[in-house]
């Protein structure tokens, strides 16, 4: 999503070539997203980008041939002990779209939830589904329509400055020349930054597991997403079955990740403990990559060591819901070097990651728990 969204914006007034390492677009993150719009999710700069994206989603949905990109879903958040209930209550106090439903209302929203065991619940009417395929398709189409090119199977293996521009080499032996390079390589963002500028951003790719479980009866399509407030699990309807995740964030090297059977078993156990579903079988499962910076805000702007290397990485678990606004912000920074919103500019400035990485390296390692 990162490459096609920013590329489509830049193609309005630049010659853009998007180099995709894989044989098709959106393999590792975009195509494996849970596709939820959560306006209260993430740190403050992410929430601001999400707020801006809401209006952009509406504008895009009004374009010819683009379906409604956001659809109502609702979110039911649950706390199962007193500390979690206190944290959830604090969240409700800050979120005008969140309410505290009665036990009867919770049973209406999700009849299988073990309501008598729940300490607290909150319902957020603002949670929505995102049509990820339509959004990605719009950006890829717009990029091509504006004269941009998308080349698949073009893994970058080297990059050197050549005069005032760049020579970029791909694994298929080709060389590409450009005035500037945009690093929108997701989990491979540090590798590209190191190739081009000698230093990365402290990115951490994390595996997130998704499981679609068989149920004894079709799951109603109008159920909300139901989640443990601390993100230990969530589930929602998916084509008559149940899509769910254990909320895992296992640090892994960049690559084609697959579910760990222990994580699959764990989410079955957690959801069974919270519901009367008695899930026993899995229809399918997959894993995707969510790549975070140490402070969980994205990295957007010129690389501190190489101003013609533009950084557009570290979207974490928020890349789809922030895509429209982040593409617009990235294009503005690329063209002008500045943002009117100086607080947002500082929060996503690539230069900050040097300090964050140094702080991370200086922090004592956490003691290991007994085996």
UniProtKB/TrEMBL annotation:
GO MF annotation, one: oxidoreductase activity
Pfam families (UniProt xref): DAO
Database matches in Gene3D superfamilies: D-Amino Acid Oxidase, subunit A, domain 2 (3.30.9.10), FAD/NAD(P)-binding domain (3.50.50.60)
Keyword vocabulary terms for this entry: Oxidoreductase
GO CC field: cytoplasm
Domain of life from the UniProt record: Bacteria
Listed InterPro entries: FAD-dep_OxRdtase, FAD/NAD-bd_sf
SUPFAM superfamilies: FAD/NAD(P)-binding domain (SSF51905)
Domain FAD dependent oxidoreductase: 2-333
Keyword rRNA-binding: no
Name of the protein in question: D-arginine dehydrogenase
Source organism: Umezawaea tangerina
């Amino acid at each position: 999503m990162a490459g096609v969204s920013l590329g489509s914006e830049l193609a309005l007034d630049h010659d853009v070539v998007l180099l995709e390492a894989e044989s098709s677009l959106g393999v590792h993150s975009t195509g494996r997203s849970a596709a939820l719009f959560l306006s209260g999710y993430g740190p403050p700069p992410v929430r601001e980008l999400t707020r801006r994206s809401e209006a952009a989603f509406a504008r895009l949905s009004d374009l010819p041939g683009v379906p409604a990109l956001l659809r109502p879903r609702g979110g039911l958040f649950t706390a199962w002990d007193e500390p979690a209930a206190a944290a959830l209550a604090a969240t409700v106090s800050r979120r005008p779209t969140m309410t505290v439903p009665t036990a009867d209302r919770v049973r209406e929203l999700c009849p299988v939830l073990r309501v008598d065991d729940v300490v607290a619940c909150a319902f957020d009417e603002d949670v929505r589904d995102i049509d990820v395929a339509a959004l990605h398709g719009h950006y890829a189409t717009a990029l091509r329509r504006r004269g941009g090119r998308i080349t698949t199977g073009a893994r970058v293996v080297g990059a050197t400055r050549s005069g005032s521009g760049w020579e970029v080499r791909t694994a298929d032996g080709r060389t590409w020349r450009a005035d500037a390079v945009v690093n929108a390589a997701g989990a491979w963002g540090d590798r590209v930054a190191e190739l081009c500028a000698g230093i990365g951003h402290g990115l951490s790719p994390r595996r997130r597991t998704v499981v679609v479980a068989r149920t004894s009866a079709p799951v109603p399509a109008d159920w909300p997403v139901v989640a443990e407030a601390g993100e230990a699990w969530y589930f929602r309807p998916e084509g008559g079955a149940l899509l769910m995740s254990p909320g895992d964030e296992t640090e892994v090297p960049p690559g084609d990740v697959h579910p760990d059977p222990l994580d699959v078993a764990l989410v079955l156990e957690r959801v069974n403990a919270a519901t009367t579903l008695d899930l026993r079988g899995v229809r399918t499962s997959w894993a995707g990559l969510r790549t975070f910076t140490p402070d969980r805000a994205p990295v957007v702007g010129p690389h501190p060591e190489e101003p013609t290397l533009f950084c557009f990485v570290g979207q974490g678990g928020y890349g789809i819901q922030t895509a429209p606004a982040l593409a617009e912000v990235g294009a503005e920074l690329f063209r002008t070097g500045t943002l009117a919103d100086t607080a947002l500019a500082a929060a996503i400035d690539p230069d900050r990651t040097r300090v964050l990485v140094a702080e991370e390296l200086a922090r004592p390692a956490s003691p290991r728990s007994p085996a």
